[in-house]
Amino acid sequence: SGDKIFIGRRNIQSLFWSIKKEKIMENKKILIIDNDPDFVVATTVVLEAKGYKVFSAKDRKDGIEKVGHVLPDLIIMDVMMEKMSDGFDLTREIKNDERYKKIPILMLTAVGEKTGFSFSKNAGDEVWLPVDDYAEKPVKPKELIAKIEKLILK
């Protein structure tokens, strides 16, 4: 008499979905546009551990060049770089360009922590803040991955 293993339909569906999701995410390109090298390194480690190909840009000018060269599947955008409005300006530039406007943008920033102002309710406003999602820094790796997966699978 051998050991019997029972795998229910839900277990199979759940296993199938997690394998399929991993395959979908494998080799997806993420561009981090942020002037904080520590944040970029830490985030790169988390994303590469999940199988993403990660690219980075340190400012607005470098960011728009990399968008064109890399054609990322998702962009992680900081708000404040050289100028306080760089993230907003670059986001609008990307979303107004026919070649790039469908690339999801996840805006991450510590502005709320520094100023007390929250952008979360404005995320998705096509004029003021045309990003696909928003999170405050510091963001937990699990939350970051969940937001990225949601945007890429959209």
Question: Would you mind describing this structure in some detail?
Answer:
A five-stranded parallel sheet has the order 2-1-3-4-5, sandwiched between helices. Helix 3 runs parallel beside helix 4. It is an alpha/beta fold and 154 residues long. Helix content is 45%, strand content 15%. It contains six helices and five strands; from the N terminus they run αβαβαβαβαβα.
Explain the layout of strands and helices.
Layout: H1 9-25, E1 29-33, H2 37-49, E2 53-57, H3 60-70, E3 74-77, H4 86-95, E4 105-109, H5 111-115, E5 133-136, H6 141-153
Parallel strand pairs: 1-2, 1-3, 3-4, 4-5
Helix pairs in contact: 3-4
Physical arrangement of strands within the biggest beta sheet: 2-1-3-4-5
What is the CA-atom radius of gyration, in angstroms? 18 Å
Largest sheet, described in full? 5 strands, parallel
How far the N terminus sits from the C terminus, by CA atoms, comes to 47 Å
Shape label: globular
Which structural class matches the secondary elements?
alpha/beta
Tell me the fraction of residues in β-strands, as a range: 5-15%
What is the count of helical runs?
A: 6
Query: Helix proportion of residues, in percent?
Result: 40-55%
**What is the β-strand count?**
5
Series of secondary-structure elements, N-terminal to C-terminal: HEHEHEHEHEH
The averaged pLDDT comes out at 82
Identify low-pLDDT runs.
Answer: none
Describe the structure using short key phrases:
154 residues; alpha/beta; five-stranded parallel sheet; 6 helices; 45% helix; globular
